Amino acid sequence: VLGVVVLTDYNNKTYTINDVSFDTNPQSTFETKNGKTSFVEYYQQRYNIRIRDTQQPMLLSRAKKRDLRAGGCELMALVPELCRVTGLTDQMRSDFRMMKAMSDHTRLNPDRRIERLNTFNNRLQ
């Protein structure tokens, strides 16, 4: 998980995972402008998202310089169930079979590409 880039569902921002905190979970509290609140309460109030697994460990990401200048925290705690992995890790890139399987799905000849686009278009209608 370390070094993986994730995309958060609620704000479409990307974060690089630097650590996993087994000491905190979504029921843990943190300080806001309005006082202390738990991650569960925060996401429910701010984004109307209900966190299902309240015992999962939190993912930690170092804030980007831009976010630090804007007054953000140095470490951001992310709820794993609200994150989606993006891109490929170095381990994935070095796996020949995985890369071959991926290229089979992404490198299509023109006829196959048109066929898939037509199928997709038909599903939209």
From TrEMBL:
> Membrane-spanning residues where?
none
List this protein's GO terms for biological process.
Answer: mRNA destabilization; piRNA processing; regulatory ncRNA-mediated post-transcriptional gene silencing
PAZ domain span: 1-87
Localisation per UniProt entry: Cytoplasm
* One Pfam assignment: PAZ
What keywords sit in the KW lines? Cytoplasm, Developmental protein, RNA-binding, RNA-mediated gene silencing
Enumerate the CDD domains for this protein.
Answer: PAZ_piwi_like
Coiled-coil features, chain-numbered ranges: none
An example Gene Ontology cellular component term from the record? P granule
Q: Which family does it belong to?
A: Belongs to the argonaute family. Piwi subfamily.
Q: What protein is this chain from?
A: Protein aubergine
Species for this entry: Culex pipiens (House mosquito)
